[in-house]
Amino acid sequence: MTELDWLYKLTRFGEKGLDYITEALARLDNPHKKLRVIQITGTNGKGSTAAMIAEVLRRAGKKAGLFTSPHLVRFNERIQINGQQIKDEELLALIKEVKSLGIQLKFFEFCTIIAILYFSRKKVDIAVLEAGMGGKHDPTTVCDAEIAVLTSIGYDHMHILGNTIEEITKEKTGIIKEKSITVTCHNNAGLPWIKEACKKNKLVAAPPYTGIVGLRGPYQKTNAGIAYEACKILEIEDETIEEGIAHTKWPGRMEYLEKKLLVDCAHNLTAIKTTAPYVKSLPKRKLIVIFGVLEDKDYKKMIKALPKPDFLILTKPPIDRALDPAKLAYDGPCAIIEEPEEALRFAKNIAKEDDLIFITGSCYLTGKIMEVLDKSETSRKETKLAHAHATASQDY
Q: How high is the pLDDT of residue 383?
């Protein structure tokens, strides 16, 4: 079993509290206290906002660490500096080092420590940390955020964060520390629980961004507005901020993997409702949707909120928490194909030239599709190269 295999087997959820990760970091000489941190939480848009901020920082000449989750294809995607993923040998060495502490850490606690250690030792100027879930009890909250970012707040992970917007918001405002400057979107700014959390802190309400955004979807203007205000606090010039936001790339977020194949990581009801109008507006003859979801989501409402497909394919994301697609009901043309690779193959077989295939419902589903296409492209290249070598040998 490799070190990564061992890491994946760790418990993902458990009792709330930061005692174990705090103890582990103390044994490592508290590397989190040596970092300048922008911490980002919220229900949707965390990764996109983090990616925009990191890209702006890079263009401003800063050495920017970026920690996000989950990954789509490779674990290394989670930990980057200026767009460069952590190398395999560095990652494995850090896993062994943290493992040797002998502390019973949860999966995300372990990941967070690796990122903090890596950023500290690489002496990044600023670390942009995306919370895994919530805020107050999230492992990333061991850091004292210089800038605390709250993206749009809605319903998700209610079994852990609470069943009301009040409970969820109060959990997420837990990232706000004594000296934090808080930035949130205009939709959140009026929430009384955010105002209460910021009564001793500066609160910046970010309007939607009016410039060019590199990521697709009008809703990204909300995320870009937050990124813009956060970067202004760091006194970065407008031109650099605008360039960074315009050129941000964030895989799996409303991304065309092929000409008529669009994927998005919308993984909860709010996200589906937000992305659906954009997909509906796209030019197409027919819409074929591949949908897979995790069992702890509000999947009955999610399937109803999808952009209405001409044909729906229900599949199963490659993770233990995935919902059996047979439990989903849909009143319309539909097929159940459990394996995502087979679902994609079926969709391509029935799609006509002007049809659009849209894949959504889970980051894990999007990641699997990306992995399948990467392998397919690699295979095509290898076949082409082998043919070229054979032809060259014959010519010779």
A: 42
pLDDT for 155: 65
d(CA 204, CA 148): 10
Distance CA 62, CA 347 (A): 44
CB atoms within 10 A of CB 90: 17
CB atoms within 10 A of CB 207: 14
- Burial of 239 by CB count in 10 Å (0-12 exposed, 13-18 middle, 19+ buried)? exposed
DSSP class per residue in 131-143: -SS-STTSGGGGS
In this prediction, residue 166 carries a pLDDT of 85
* Cβ neighbourhood burial of 386 (10 Å; 0-12, 13-18, 19+): exposed
How many angstroms separate the CA atoms of 156 and 271, rounded? 10
* The predicted structure's pLDDT at residue 391: 42
Tokens of residue 348, six digits: 């391509």
The residue type of 101 is L
Write the CB contacts of 181 (distance below 8 Å, at least 6 apart in sequence).
146, 147, 148, 201, 202, 204, 233
Q: C-alpha 78: how far from its chain's center?
A: 9
What CA–CA distance (Å, rounded) separates 39 from 252? 22
Strand, coil or helix: 117? helix
Residue range 60-72: mean pLDDT, rounded: 97
Q: What is the per-residue pLDDT across 252-286, written as a single tens digit (0 to 9) for each?
A: 999 999 999 999 999 999 999 999 999 999 999 99
- Which amino acid, one-letter code, is at 177? K
